[in-house]
Amino acid sequence: VFAGQDAMPRFMDEFQNIFASMHPQELTYIDEQSARELIEEPIWNHKKECSRFHPDAVNKILELTACSPFYIMILCSELVKFARQRKRLPIQANDVDTLVQKMICNESSISRKDFDNLISCGEARLDIIDKDDSIKVLKDIALKSRNIEFYDVNEIKVFDKEKVKNIINDLLRRRVLEPHPDFGNKVRIKVGLFKRWLLNHE
Taking a C-beta distance cutoff of 8 angstroms, is the pair 197, 185 a contact? Predict the structure, then answer.
């Protein structure tokens, strides 16, 4: 078994003979039901047979993490600490919002390194897009879509059209961006927590 990051397909292309007999399996965002279980089951109240999360809080976490196990675990770990401090259950949607705002303002809670997997493919030698260029485009999308869900990539002016197109295609391929179901020229930042962080670090 070989494990790698987003650069793995390019690495396999470079060494096709070695990887010819292997079957690549992408590990990415999980389905919504599995994500709900990951959020609720670790701190499920077995005595009362109920969740320690209000349904709206679970929906808010799904929205912020896009069902990414990595970001679910980060956020839920902090939420458990937050709930213990406040001594109030179930965890509400406004608790999630309050905590996220504190997290993105406090570099000790969540920082750029926690989003490195979204910013680049994880292997500098195979990374065709410069990290700073990706960040510049992502920040522009976050800023321009602050009050809307999807943003038209044709409106991105931070680089020339060809360079923007290459960056957008890379971000779409790695599922950092999600295309609009009806309008192919519009995209959104998939992980809401990442978008919030970008907006706080303009």
Answer: no
